[in-house]
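Shipment paperwork, digital attachment
Item: protein structure file
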Amino acid sequence: MAPPQTPPAAITTAAGAATKPTSLTAYPPPSDTTSNFLPLLDTHMLSTTLLPPFLSALPASPSIIDLGCGTGRTTLSLLSVPGARILGFDGSARMLQKASVRCSEALHGLPAGQRAAGASFDVWDMAGGGGGKKGGQQQQQPEAVVVDAVVCALGVENVSLEVFFRVVGGMVKKKAGGMVLVTGMHPDVGRDQQAGLRGEGKGKGGGYVHDVEGVVEMGRGCGWRVKFGPEVREVREEDVGRFGERARKWVGRKVWFGMVLERG
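Attachment content:
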């Protein structure tokens, strides 16, 4: 298989060597600081529902892939796993440079013994990882990348479920206990013509709409069982103050789902 594309230099963030921050004006703003409320809600739900039991179930010094990591929004939450080796994949080298800077700063602010061994980032697009083409070039899954767990936050909408489970099935160790944490836009939002939610999740204008039950069923057919969840979240009145005015039109409606799957 062909190796993943090579991102810009200084993309590795190790616990023992800081990455020198560069001008952040060259990078797009992280999705958790834009007016898009869905990544903000996703981060909140991950930290309060799925990440705690997921992290507790990991083996010691685990290897974890953050699939579709963007600017490191979710990667940051993995840096406090002692001894973890984290690999972030995304299709945008510019976003990965931002992720590297953010994670380097965060990693070096954690006490020794309470932080990951390091985080590295590489350019690879899941949308082409099913053997499809991107930019006219055939893409293959990265070689020799097999880990204990995969996290994919608001990224499953970019591919079909067949491709998603093919990709993560090739990344997670083929043994009982391997896990995938996946979150996504609830289909009630994805089917709305006026969704207007852009960023790490796509509206109906692009990508795929996945039913929660469809994710569970497809996972079961590929050898995965639900370990935690599924969790479903509607927008509440208090969320408008927490996540911004763009959440107001969705009050009372389901917008998010998430679950942790485990190899059977």
